Amino acid sequence: MSEDSPKQEKRQILPQDYYDSRQVMALLKLSKQKYYELVEREEDPLPMRMYGWSTRGALAERCELMSWFKRNTLLVRDGKKRKQA
Predict the structure, then answer these.
(1) How far is CA 46 from CA 9, 57, 82, in A?
(2) Are 79 and 72 a contacting pair, CB within 8 Å?
(3) Cα(33)–Cα(40) distance, rounded to whole angstroms?
(4) Would you say 35 and 43 are in contact if contact means Cβ atoms under 8 Å apart?
(5) Is the pLDDT of residue 1 over 50?
(6) Which of 6, 20, 21, 83 is deepest in the core (most CB within 10 A)?
(7) Following DSSP, what letter does each residue of the chain receive, concatenated?
(8) pLDDT, tens digit, for every residue of 49-83?
(9) In this structure, is the dihedral angle defined by the CA atoms of residues 82, 63, 59 and 1, taken in order, positive or negative?
(10) Beta carbons within 10 angstroms of residue 80's beta carbon
(11) pLDDT of residue 80
(12) Is 19 within 8 Å of 62 (Cβ atoms)?
């Protein structure tokens, strides 16, 4: 493996206005398969955007991604309450 291997080095992702698909997968700790499942789902898909003429290069706007994340996750304490019920 080279020194630039992603398995050896975790690059910090700085706050920015837009994130590409690799950054979104890293931020949300998603596998490539799970990423595509979330992008393609019918109800509340992962908010990735691309130019109409492009087949590559999807981007996520930071505020949309944060809103999606909040809608699709639970606070740890709420998850524990749900398991106890």
Answers:
(1) 26, 15, 24
(2) no
(3) 11
(4) no
(5) no
(6) 21
(7) --TT-TTT-PPP----SEEEHHHHHHHHT--HHHHHHHHH-SSS----B--TT-SS--EEEHHHHHHHHHHT---HHHHHHHHH-
(8) 998 887 778 999 999 999 999 999 999 888 777 77
(9) negative
(10) 11
(11) 75
(12) yes
pTM for the whole structure: 0.76
Mutual orientation of helices 21-28 and 62-71 as an angle, nearest 10°? 40
What's the rounded Cα separation, in Å, for the pair 8 and 57? 25
Residues in the chain: 85
For 33, counting Cβ atoms within 10 Å of its Cβ (0-12 exposed, 13-18 middle, 19+ buried), the class is: exposed
Can you tell me the distance from the alpha carbon of 73 to that of 30, in angstroms, rounded to the nearest whole number? 14
* CB contact at 8 A, 65 and 58: no
